[in-house]
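User: Show me a protein chain along with its predicted structure.
Assistant: Here is one chain, sequence first, then structure tokens.
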Amino acid sequence: MAALSQSCPFDTFRLKLTDQIRLLAAYFRFRPDGFYVDVGANDPFDNSNTWALERLGWKGIVIEPLPDLAARLRQQRNATVFECVCTEPSRAGQPLEFWVNGPLSTLSPHRTPSTTLFHDHIAVNSRTLDDILFEADAPQGFQLLTVDTQGNEILVLRGFDFDHWRPELIFLRDLVLDRHLHTYVRRRNYTIIHRSEINSWYARRDLCPSLSIGKKLEFIRKFYLGTPFRQFSFWRRRKRRDTQWHMAQS
């Protein structure tokens, strides 16, 4: 993993970053150039994984299906904005039902453990990530792909050609309720190198640093030993949410 001790050139800006976002910028040694792809960008600034990199001078693509947030991204960010959801090829090109709940908005409300109910949904355009990247003329071997789509990350990646694009780092939201997403990425020549909050960091295998025994044991605990407990906790929260929903409908 790249050295994480180099200081950020924006002292006041740095204070506003979460530890995770600062660590992400530090992974790339605060380089002033680079290219990112942000799927499920949501707010232009709050909890953004890529705004810090844009401030450093990076170029990129942001993808956000909610019309109001896509409009704000166009006004307040320098990235190329696509207003749609990314999904697998078999579903791309058709309007999809998108459930709205702020940053927890999703194509699949059953995949989020939130106890908040989804009272609204809209129809959104859908495309594969490959289709967007080719249209935007994204560079092969770009630095960062970040995907936060509230449980639909694997659908996004099914429409993404790993061998063609070969990003240096893939940053994925993953509650690790199962190992499907982890296994899918590993089989495409990427290795997990870090977990922060609910996100997994995967480095391209030819760029992957050596991992300590402690780090390997941490991943075994997270992806194997702890999964049944998270599944049970998720089931309990989903059952409570479903009960609330049925009470609200009665």
